[in-house]
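Continuing from the previous page of notes. For each protein in this section, the sequence appears first, followed by its structure tokens. Read the first protein now.
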Amino acid sequence: MPLPLAHTMIGLTTNEVLGRGSAPPDWKTVVFIVVLSNLPDLDIAAGLLVHGNGCAFHRGPTHSIAFALLAGALATNVSKLWPAIPRMNWIHSFLIILSHVISDLLFTKSPVSLFWPLETHWVDGVSGWGESLMPIFLEAYKDVWVLLICLLMMMLVRLAATVKERTRTDLGDYRFSEIGKDQRR
């Protein structure tokens, strides 16, 4: 099960792939990506606050495409209301939130409500405050492989962007030198 650190890295990697290796995001954008990539797990906090059980609402509507669509639209428009939040287009917001849902779908045994409201799945069991919070701090080592894969993907995206830029620059230099030859004749 990906924990918040893995969801964060997957969200940052999603942003990197969508940006195709452009300039690294500033710290406000990184914080915004952290929030968006962990947003579906608000259902754990809701379950803890309402029932004292982090599993009460987990993997329900917040782990769906519909939630990612709605939350992505909300995240895109919130920067208009609160300028301190960095601007992010809808598709970036949507895909960063959806990356959480997809990673839970792929890396966990319990189902997610991907097509909610047509299907709804809930996590069975009871998870109090301690059982819900302790894995975040004591079991993050389980996600090391996710972190390594994400770092590798980000490095490959940066490398591809660098190669593309150098190729474009070299072609530009070649065209410029060819123009110069034509003018000298």
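Done with the first. The second protein uses the same format. Note its length before scrolling.
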Amino acid sequence: MALHPTVAGFLATLPHHEHGPVDPHALRVEEAGQVTPLEDRLPVHSVEDRDANGVPVRVITPAGADQVGIIVYFHGGAFLRGSLETHDHIARELANATGMRVVLVDYRLAPEHAFPAALDDCATVVRWAVSPEAGLAWDGTTLALAGDSSGGNFVAVTAADLLDAGFNQVTHQVLLYPSVDLDFDETRYASLRENAVGYGLETAGLKYHNAFYLDGGADPADPRVSPIKRDDLAGLPQALVVTAEYDPLRDEGEAYAERLRAAGVPAITRRWEGAQHGFVQFFGWVPEFHPVYDEVAQFLRGGK
């Protein structure tokens, strides 16, 4: 189907720019200026900023949550931006839709912090979230990792890292239009060519945004950088992989889900028609897209 008219209308207002090196500080300042004011955010039972063994986190609790499942959320931002504020609205939506506590992670960003600092932070928070010291009243059932874009990368890698370390309590992984292959050779996936220009995230810009992560020692051939390259995916948590029709990263996300299924891991792929990369963060309020939160909730409750 055609690109959703609300998305198309917004993209039409953006000025054309040539791709080249980017300024992380400028991008962060611009992004901070787009954050929804606190008074306009979705109400939840409680929001508490905590320290998870040295990693800042935000714990969002929905109404009626006593002993519940936990979702640990890793925000997107091309490894160099994103924060507790930029993704607060996603965490609130997930908490209300699922009835679970959401722990939003403020991991260290590139280029100031080189690979694998952010991954270390993600694993630290997952372990903390279910520990007695956190006091989050985990019910011992659902422990989901979720994230968008580069955060989806961290979901896949962290799930594998924890499995390799013998931590087997993660039950689900939710990857929203994930970046799981940092080899940006356009011949690898048709979506890198089909959706190369005009849909917000553009293929030519990928190398410039991800350069800060790669220049910090993240090798695209390393499965901890490109999790689709992991030899053995068996034993990983069941997955929901959400992709967008008009996203250069669409095909790699769907290929990752297929590899999970081939390894015997239950994996659902859901391609959202008319959507582009980032639609949950920027257009999740659109009526046609908002049901993505209900879909995540259904998946975490064991539905299909």
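What the second structure shows: Residues 5-300 form a domain with the Rossmann fold fold (CATH 3.40.50.1820). The chain has one domain: 5-300. We return to this in next week's lecture.
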